[in-house]
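Homework help board

Subject: predicted structure for assignment chain

Our instructor gave us this sequence and asked us to write out the predicted structure in token form, then describe one feature. I got the tokens but I'm not sure how to describe them. Can anyone check?
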Amino acid sequence: MSELLDDIRDYWTMRAEGYSYSVNNSIETGQSEFWLKMISKYIDLNRPLRILDVGTGPGFFPMLLGHMNHSITAVDYTESMLNAARDNCKKSNVNVTLLQMDAQNLEFDDESFDLVISRNLVWDLEYPIKAYKEWMRVLTHDGKMIIFDGNHYLHLFDDKYENTSDDRSHKSEYMMGVDANIMQNIAKELPLSKERRPQWDAVKLMEMGTSNVSVYTDPAKSIHISEYGEDLILPLSFMICATKI
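My token output:
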């Protein structure tokens, strides 16, 4: 286990309670319906699926999808996040298999899942290419990988993203006294903090031989700038869906 992975785990251990509160608030207020609608655009949720939620945190996707007759396995590296997910899923009367596991080194057989899904994780990985290869490995032929993520710390390295730090997840009621600078210092060492995404992801996934790579960005959650006489839209958050050949 790398020292940086240790640091990432320790930070999210401190954030587990606040992140759980954020996730529950999203579901209770109906904000979570956005993700459900987006997922439904790319895969038929009306048929039973074997779903792997990578980096489940406090169990957002199991709570969202757990009443739809799917078989859901959710993994996270942080034990306190798994404990929060276990409590949340129990309260929501959702059956899910929860396992402690590194997203970059999955312990599943090849072609074990019809859908691999993840939210706000890839930016936080030391080896995102390795993770993507692992996630594709455990997908069935024609299986889908759906990723929700964002350019959370690109403002530290890209002057076009200057002053775009996303404060939504850093609200005091969600942080619960945890110093956000801890994660910022970690992010300086993470490879994707320096990459414009989802461009980077789309290229890497196509190089891996995936098909039908689709990208969704919301212009309302993007930066609109002019560069070299051209108008550019730089996304802050995005969704990617890739199909395994």
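Reply (TA_rk): Your tokens look well-formed. For the description, you could write something like this. The beta strands are 50-54, 71-76, 97-100, 113-119, 139-150, 211-217, 222-227, 230-235, 237-243. That's the kind of observation they're looking for.
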